[in-house]
Design brief:
18 residues; mainly alpha; rod-shaped
């Protein structure tokens, strides 16, 4: 997994959690 992909994944998780 690329750094950019991980960043996007974390962002998605945060949005989904909120």
């Amino acid at each position: 997994m690329s750094a950019r992909t991980t960043r996007y994944y974390y962002y998605y998780l945060t949005v989904y959690w909120h």
